[in-house]
Design a protein that fits this description.
Structural class: alpha/beta
Strand order of the largest sheet: 4-5-6-3-7-8-9
Radius of gyration: 17 Å
Order of helices and strands: HEHHHEHEHEEEHEHEHEH
Protein name: Phosphatase
Shape: globular
InterPro entries: Phosphatase_SCO2771
Strand content: 15-25%
Mean pLDDT: 95
Pfam family, one: Phosphatase
Largest sheet: 7 strands, mixed
Amino acid sequence: MVSRGALRAHLLDARLAGVVATSREVSLRSYRLFAARDPRVVIGLDPAGSWRQRDLIALMADRCGVSADPACVSGLDVIDPELTLTALDAFADRIAATAQRSAPVLLGTGHPHRLLGFYAALADALSAAGCAVLTPAHGRCVDITTRFGLRTYNLAYVRGVALVREPDLSRPGCEPGAHTHSPLPVRTALAAAAEAGGPLPELVIGDHGWVCGAGQLGFEAIGLADTDDPALFVGEAEGVVSVVVPLDDAVRSDYYRPLTRYVLNRACLSQ
């Protein structure tokens, strides 16, 4: 069991919160691109509001704890650990409610090298609680525009968690796949589930486009997001996304293990 106080200390020690590795310059660039509706940053969301850059700075200050001063344009971003803990509680409560109903779930990540273990532990616990962990469109091709041009990936599942891989790395036993912000993988998975006539997820858990893409389609979605991921927090503010946990989403994978224990303990699920 991990206490709230111990987890707060861990968040700061591991730089999951407090001063994080994401720079202010990178975050501000994301806010500018989101304000311009750049699809690389909107990642599947269709915002109802106008969301100018100054609006996004104010929102991210409120939801993450970054500086609210538009004149602050350099240095490292800061995440308030209390906001992370409060959001983790809400995140765990949504998982608990889903487990109590034994409802079907879909998990996916754009950060497989960092967050696969975190989501896989949730998938294991939800499966043990009677939830169907869905794996629709396994092996399906997904064309994603990257900075290197259009690339084709394969949708794959590792321990119940969806991710995308280069086609020649889609063999069983390969390392986790590619980093992506795209909403196309979750759209592909949800469309395949609907076409098959099987169950649809009552909760989607993940990050980046997995959360925004699912939420925009009307599915309940919860996830993790860094200070340069404004789309998820806009989605939460507009009621499209249920819960977003502010934290650094690219630290060492083992640093997320205490978060796993905390969430599962609060949700009354065993790991």
